[in-house]
Amino acid sequence: MVKDRRTFERMDGIVNVRYAVRGRDKDKIESLPRNIGGGGLGICLAEKLQSGTVLELEITVPDDPQKVVLGVGEVAWTKLFGVIKSGQKVNLYETGVKFVDINHISVGRVYAYSRQQKRI
Question: Mean pLDDT by 10-residue block, N- to C-terminus, for the chain (120 residues)?
Fold first, then answer.
């Protein structure tokens, strides 16, 4: 069994996460959120990114989409998650992202919202 080394509990992804690869993407790209915690997040992407890739992040919470949390994360790991077949095959990659520059108070608000939704 693999030991979970996370410092913070992860909450299932009920937030919206957009990302841009620093130095490559001009516009942010939608992702499929998996989970979020105080130290990072898990997202599914239609591209495989290398560990160490720096991402510009935009996180929004459904309760207040006007309050966007901006930050920077670094890809920690990537693995093939699944394949979507809708006329054309698209690989999805589960990607672990470590926060490297983000307002932790804002992340706390996102985390609190996720915990509240978990109880409902």
Answer: 52 80 95 85 94 95 80 96 77 94 81 67
